[in-house]
Write a structure and sequence with these properties.
alpha+beta, five-stranded mixed beta sheet, 2 helices, 5 strands, about 30% helix
Length: about 80
């Protein structure tokens, strides 16, 4: 099973700032995370609440919420590209 990935408006704004190569890498990483949102180096954002998670995907820090079928990305923080 793979979750549907949805982005909050603020997260979409940040993603548009990524260059095309970083965005492709991020999207590949998100497809992996969508298949297993509790794995791949993610961690609970708050103690006692496993469904609110933090992860780094292709050097982009995200916070997301896992619900029945949707992985909702609420926060995206992209560090400046090292290139």
């Amino acid at each position: 099973m793979s979750y549907v990935v949805a982005y909050a408006p603020a997260a979409e704004v940040e993603l548009r700032r990524l260059g095309p190569n970083r965005l492709r890498a991020f999207e590949r990483g998100m497809s992996v995370l969508a298949r297993d949102p509790y794995g791949h180096g993610s961690a609970p954002a708050r103690a006692g609440y496993e469904d609110c998670r933090d992860a780094t995907v292709a050097d982009v820090v995200i916070r997301y919420e896992v619900s029945k079928s949707v992985l909702r990305i609420t926060v995206v923080r992209a560090a400046p590209s090292p290139f």
